[in-house]
Design a protein that fits this description.
This protein is an alpha/beta fold. Helices cover about 35% and strands about 15% of the residues. α6 links the parallel β8 and β9. Pfam families: Radical_SAM (PF04055).
């Protein structure tokens, strides 16, 4: 596929490590606001193209926990972190910065209002950061205990933890497993010593291999490996080697992120996207295609734009994001999606301390006072769904937002169905041809028979920004 000269890479919105989704628009609310709990709800008026809010969601069953500690800040990182220093060891048992933060985090969880009296237990917990594996297991245990007492944990809760090479050994990992951690996300990023050093990573290649061996020897079956492409001076040969060695390590899940150069980071000062020593947009697309091909050939399902897994090993927590389900977020800079609204905590420790204090004093209502915008919700559903191999569920989308909007989406996507970037499926999962779509556009009833619309892999995913923006123009012209 030839990329357009105006092509905006999909990677411009997807960061170099997992976090809660960054949305295209700005509906994130200040946590100091309040909102009317029961906004009015009416159905879509086809003639006026007025969208209305779907029925309220169930309370969240997932929680993201931000543990911000790192040995040092990587050159590409703009996350809210606390750098402990490169000499920081694997135990950190007596570091008051970690102890004080975890106590503050537990206070926030305890002060959070439940959505209802019959709040369901948590089914997924994700410890992200930062480098959560720098936190002593006894403090991780205290967080899990607070979550258990506040919300409950289901018997088979997926408890994930991001871990970096050089920050854990078999003793620590076994302790974490004993606490219930049953999924590890290993931040390898590259298999070349020079690239790791150029990124400012605190670990080297020797520690990468040690970490992989430790995860295997401790019997962790459900584990993921993170890689970053389009790094400065990274060649196709280097990227191919990293993918090959990843496959040889046999993780059950692989996350592949293209470098996003953020303002305020060291890379943001040194480099301009698309200019040497960073790869061009076409080279970045080639890296993406190589990952899709090699990982698919190795038996990994490309179930989300940046995620691959062996059968049955999708990240259940991240699927909550892509399915646009509600979730709690706790800790510095974390985001929540509750009651149809998204809101974020402060990114600096001092402000976060004040937020927790105000929350305890009843001076903060995390749910805002603005009415829920149905168009924003519809755009979220489209953007998040089209990240996945499953795509947009047209039946549920039609029920929530009306058949005329679905019809308008098909009209907008018609050229991309013909080019193969957009794929339509019937209720049996059979691909519907472009000719059949053209015929269906003459009959609204035939459009109703279509079940899913998704982007092709890899070419459709590579044009996801353009295709999602096109959908936004239909939803909110």
């Amino acid at each position: 596929m030839m990329l357009k000269s105006t092509f905006t890479p999909l990677f411009s919105i997807f960061p170099a490590k997992p976090r809660t989704p960054k949305l295209f628009h700005y509906r994130t609310k200040s946590i100091t606001n309040t909102f009317t709990p029961n906004p009015p709800s009416v159905r879509q008026n086809a003639s006026s193209n007025t969208l209305t809010v779907p029925p309220p969601q169930l309370p969240p069953t997932s929680a993201y926990i931000h543990l911000p500690f790192c040995r040092k800040r990587c050159h590409y990182c703009d996350f809210p972190i606390v750098a402990l220093g490169s000499s920081s060891n694997q135990t950190n048992d007596d570091d008051p910065r970690i102890l004080n933060y975890v106590q503050l985090l537990c206070r926030e969880i305890n002060a959070t209002k439940l959505e209802c009296n019959t709040n369901p237990p948590l089914k997924t917990v994700f410890f992200g950061g930062g480098t959560p594996s720098l936190v002593p297991p006894r403090l991780v245990s205290s967080v899990l205990e607070v979550l258990r007492l506040k919300f409950g944990l289901s018997s088979n809760t997926e408890i994930s933890m991001e871990m970096d090479p050089g920050t854990f050994d078999s003793k620590k990992l076994k302790e974490l497993i004993g606490l219930g951690v049953n999924r590890v996300s290993l931040g390898v990023q590259a298999f070349q010593q020079d690239l790791l050093k150029a990124c400012g990573r605190a670990h080297g290649l020797e520690e990468v291999y040690e970490a992989i061996e430790t995860v295997g020897s401790c019997g962790v079956e459900n584990w993921s490996m993170d890689l970053i492409s389009s790094l400065p001076n990274q060649t196709p040969e280097m990227w191919e080697e990293s993918l090959r060695l990843t496959v040889e390590a046999q993780p059950t899940h692989v996350s592949v992120y293209d470098l996003q150069v953020e303002q305020g980071t060291k890379f943001g000062i040194l480099y301009t996207p698309g200019e040497f020593p960073l790869p061009s947009e076409i080279q970045s697309a080639d890296f993406y295609k190589m990952a899709s091909r090699m990982l698919s050939d190795a038996g990994y399902n490309h179930y989300e734009i940046s995620s691959y897994c062996k059968s049955g090993f999708e990240c259940k927590h991240n699927l909550i994001y892509w399915k646009n389900k509600p979730f709690y977020g706790f800790g510095l800079g974390s985001a929540s999606y509750v009651g149809g609204l998204r809101f974020s905590r402060p990114r600096k420790i001092k402000e976060y301390m004040g937020y927790v204090q105000n929350l305890e004093n009843g001076l903060v209502d995390c749910r805002g006072n603005d009415p829920i915008d149905a168009k924003d919700m519809a755009m979220d559903v489209v953007m998040l769904s089209l990240r996945t191999a499953r795509g947009l569920d047209l039946k549920s989308f039609r029920e929530a937002y009306g058949g005329s909007l679905v019809f308008s989406l098909f009209k907008a996507y018609k050229p991309y169905v013909e080019s193969g970037h957009v794929v339509c499926l019937d209720e049996h999962g059979t691909v519907v041809s472009a000719d059949e779509i053209n015929t269906a556009l003459l009959d609204v009833d035939k459009i109703r028979q279509l079940a899913f619309i998704r982007l092709s892999d890899p070419d459709g995913f590579l044009l996801s920004n353009e295709l999602i923006s096109l959908a936004f123009g239909v939803i909110a012209p």
